[in-house]
Every structure is written in C-alpha cells, then in structure tokens.
Write a structure and sequence with these properties.
Oligomer: single chain
Strand content: 15-25%
Largest sheet: 4 strands, antiparallel
Structural class: alpha+beta
Radius of gyration: 18 Å
Number of strands: 11
Distance between the termini: 34 Å
Amino acid sequence: MTVRTTTALGLAAFAGLLLAACGSGDAARAGAPPSLTTDPVTFVAKPGLSPTAEALPRLAGDSVQIGSINADLDTVDALDAGNLTDCEGGDGEWNRAVLKPMTGPGYVTFRIAQDWYCGGAYPATSQTALTYDLATGQRVDWARAIPGLNLTTDALEGLPDGYVVNVQSATLAGWYGPKMLAGSDPEWVEQCASTFAPDMLADQGFKIWADAENGGVSVAPDFPHVSQACAETATMTADDLKAFRADPKLIEAIDAAHAAQNWVSAE
C-alpha cells in the first residue's frame, strides 16, 4: 500500500517511547497571550492514536492563542492517524512517540518520532518538530525569526493539512556541514563526510525547532533512508543566533527555559 505524506523523515531512536504528557503552571487567561514567565506550559493528555502511537497533548487554557495551537495539533494528529489506519489495515505496524524539547516560556515545541512497516523491503522512519509562538498561537515562521539564515521553505501546494515543512538555505548548510565534520567520532565523520559536502547540502531540507534542553535552536537534516545514519542534530547557541540576527525574544525565551529546565525528554 502507499503511505500518504507524513509529517517528516528520520530519527527512529525516539520511536516506541510513549511518554505521558506533563508540565505544570497556570493556564493562560482567556483572550490574552500567555506571559513570558518561567512557568512551563500545562498540557492535557489525549488518548493514543493506537496502543503503540502516542497522540500529541493539547495545551490547557481557553485563550484564542491556545485554541489556535490546539486546532493545528488536531490536524497533525489527524494526518498521522490516517496514515496509521492505512498501514495497520494492511497488517502493518506503526509506532509514534512525542517529546517536548521546550515547554515555555514564550514558545512550546513538540518532536514526533515514528517508525512503521507497511510491507516492502524495509521499515520506514520519520521525525518532525513543531514550535509554536504562544503570543500568536501560530507555528514559528523561521525565516522571520532568524532572518540571517536566509531560509526558504517547501512549497505547500498539494500538501495535506498538518504537514510540517522543511527549511533550507545555503547559509544554514554552510553552518551545519562544518559542525558535523568537526564531530568527535572520526569513524563516523569519515563515513559521512561526503554527505556534508557543500554541494550535497546546497538544496537539503532541515527540520528546525526551539530546543530548551540543548539551549538553542536545533536543526537536523531530512536525509533519505540511505543517509539517515548521518542525520545528526546540531544546536545553534545564543551567540550563533545573535550572529544570524535572531529575534531577541526567541533567544531570551530559550535561555529562560533552559535555566528553568522546561522540557520533557526521553526517560
């Protein structure tokens, strides 16, 4: 069978981790965006898409901004639920796990890791990341948030509701490649070196997210299956973000979240 477009590609390591939604703090007041405090976002757990596929949690609160975020999370879950139904209806297997690399202030991030086998020679994996601006209730526009990266995105025409676009630019590729080539594992660097050549990364799509756990904005290339072992994550520090003219509010929020340990990672 044919699996419809999923939310992203890569990173099976998180798959199978089924984490309970958690977090604490006051829910946002109705009609007003959440304030920039160090309190983490409060989540409401949702029933799983299947016994092995975790649903995205929703944000607690009744503000317009939270309602907008929750509506978008509905569309992301619906997209993956449809793919799961198609796969398992053909005696396939689908696993889905959700992590929260940033749970406020200012922004909330979800990472979704999936693996599935719906027939064919090999199983497949995917990973994606969604960062929402709590002040607007919208997904972060990374081209505007970090203008110095000169980012462009996938064309949305023909893509389903809930799809998460990649970002790409020569500037981002030029930052990422040298980071990988300076890695601490010489054997891995040697095996993956050709993947990080400028011409190979020139048109490469990346996932991008606000990452309180690692204290910056993280990126990971959306490599095809054959190169996924080389798809390591790299994190832009506050100094990197300032050099790329990132929104100061974004940098401030990530610094505050990192200091407050506002994230939910793998146990």
